[in-house]
């Protein structure tokens, strides 16, 4: 990895300071790590530090290739299913959440479990449980096969109907149109989800909204920043992995809002020089599971090609932090005393 060569300044009006034809970069803020990803990654780091190996992680802790590779090198063992974990071992559940069936499997295998599910995903699980208890049909807007959707749907399989987008609305059937609510995956496109909801409401006028936004603050903020700058960008580079829903959405949002071209890359060396042909303004952002060091590498790569002028486009300030899972807090406290749990964010190194 290379060290940063750029020192972004903050602007609120994209393009206001640009000289015509001068190469420049607009850098989205916020970008990268959200509070749920930070918590999940630090949870694995702390578990590796606290407990005897092996430490198993069910699924990718967060959807980022670099994060998973780095934690693997430190000793974490990633598995796809709970039954791959030896009886009695320690397993961490990923930020995307798991269904009650997965908790039951872990219990049957006497696993020590550490649940790194993002609290904002847990909130959606609770909503699903509550509306199922009240016998609603729950229209869950999300992508089939995504781990978060599997976890949420598993809370109330008899009540949940998956709706993948506006085009699926016509086929949705419910038991009672008077008792219908929609919930969603946390990492969707805000605009597309609102269009899905609009069409669902046309079909089911009594459709209830979730008690609060299911698309999380981090997903929304990263999309707002991209929307603010997309119209100025000849090229948008989104740092993120192809299985990261919120990262993929950022490319789509950029293209929908005026970026002439857009690509998702895990690493700077995946950028194709040909993408820069005739390009004056490059937008750069990153998904919520992406460490900042990867963005710095992209900025360095661009700077080496004449894109040294970097301006931040700031859509929101973020300061949210989540406490670590109880199991980790308890064991840290037992080992290091009270102060240890307070400084945990200084200790996380995958930033
Ligand atoms: S993207 Fe949102 S829901 Fe997902 S881990 Fe981050 S804060 Fe939580």
UniProtKB/TrEMBL annotation:
Q: Which family does it belong to?
A: Belongs to the IspH family.
- The UniProt record gives the binding positions of isopentenyl diphosphate as 63, 96, 146, 244-246, 289
Q: What does this protein do?
A: Catalyzes the conversion of 1-hydroxy-2-methyl-2-(E)-butenyl 4-diphosphate (HMBPP) into a mixture of isopentenyl diphosphate (IPP) and dimethylallyl diphosphate (DMAPP). Acts in the terminal step of the DOXP/MEP pathway for isoprenoid precursor biosynthesis.
Q: So where does [4Fe-4S] cluster get bound? A: 34, 118, 216
The family database entries (InterPro entries) matched by this protein are listed as: LytB/IspH
Q: Which Pfam families match?
A: LYTB
* Cofactor(s) annotated in UniProt: [4Fe-4S] cluster
Iron in keyword set: yes
> What's a single GO MF annotation on this record?
4 iron, 4 sulfur cluster binding
> Where dimethylallyl diphosphate is bound, by residue?
63, 96, 146, 244-246, 289
What's the name of the protein?
4-hydroxy-3-methylbut-2-enyl diphosphate reductase
Cite the active-site annotation: 148 (proton donor)
- Presence of keyword Metal-binding: yes
Q: Which reaction does it catalyse?
A: isopentenyl diphosphate + 2 oxidized [2Fe-2S]-[ferredoxin] + H2O = (2E)-4-hydroxy-3-methylbut-2-enyl diphosphate + 2 reduced [2Fe-2S]-[ferredoxin] + 2 H(+); dimethylallyl diphosphate + 2 oxidized [2Fe-2S]-[ferredoxin] + H2O = (2E)-4-hydroxy-3-methylbut-2-enyl diphosphate + 2 reduced [2Fe-2S]-[ferredoxin] + 2 H(+)
Q: Which UniProt keywords apply?
A: 4Fe-4S, Iron, Iron-sulfur, Isoprene biosynthesis, Metal-binding, Oxidoreductase
Relay the cofactor remark from the entry: Binds 1 [4Fe-4S] cluster per subunit.
The biological processes this protein is annotated with in GO are: dimethylallyl diphosphate biosynthetic process; isopentenyl diphosphate biosynthetic process, methylerythritol 4-phosphate pathway; terpenoid biosynthetic process
């Amino acid at each position: 990895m290379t060290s940063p060569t750029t020192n972004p300044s903050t602007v609120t009006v994209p393009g206001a300071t640009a000289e015509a034809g001068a190469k420049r970069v607009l850098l989205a803020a916020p970008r990268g790590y959200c509070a749920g990803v930070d918590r999940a990654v630090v949870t694995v780091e702390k578990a590796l530090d606290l407990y005897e190996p092996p430490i198993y992680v069910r699924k990718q802790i967060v959807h980022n290739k670099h994060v998973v590779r780095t934690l693997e090198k430190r000793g974490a063992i990633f598995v796809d299913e709970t039954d791959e974990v030896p009886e009695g071992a320690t397993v961490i559940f990923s930020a995307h959440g798991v269904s009650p069936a997965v908790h039951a499997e872990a219990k049957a295998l006497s696993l020590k479990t550490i649940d790194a599910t993002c609290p904002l995903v847990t909130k959606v699980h609770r909503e699903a449980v509550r509306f199922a208890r009240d016998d609603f049909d729950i229209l869950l807007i999300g992508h089939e096969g995504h781990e978060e959707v599997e976890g949420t749907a598993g809370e109330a399989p008899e009540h949940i109907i998956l709706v993948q987008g506006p085009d699926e609305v016509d086929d949705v059937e419910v038991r009672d149109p008077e008792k219908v609510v929609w919930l969603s995956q946390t990492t969707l496109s805000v605009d597309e989800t609102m269009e899905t909801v609009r069409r669902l409401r046309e079909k089911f006028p009594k459709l209830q909204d979730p008690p609060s936004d299911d698309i999380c603050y981090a997903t929304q903020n990263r999309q707002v920043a991209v929307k603010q700058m997309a119209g100025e960008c000849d090229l948008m580079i989104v740092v993120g992995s192809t299985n990261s829903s919120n990262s993929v959405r950022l490319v789509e949002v950029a293209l929908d809002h005026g970026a002439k071209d857009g690509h998702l890359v895990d690493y700077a060396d995946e950028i194709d020089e040909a993408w820069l042909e005739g390009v004056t303004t490059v937008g750069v952002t990153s998904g919520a599971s992406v460490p900042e060091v990867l963005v710095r590498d992209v900025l360095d790569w661009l700077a080496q090609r004449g894109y040294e002028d970097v301006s931040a486009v700031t859509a929101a300030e973020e300061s949210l932090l989540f406490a670590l899972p109880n199991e980790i807090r308890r064991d840290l406290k037992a080992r290091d005393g009270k102060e240890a749990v307070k400084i945990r964010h200084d200790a996380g190194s995958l930033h």
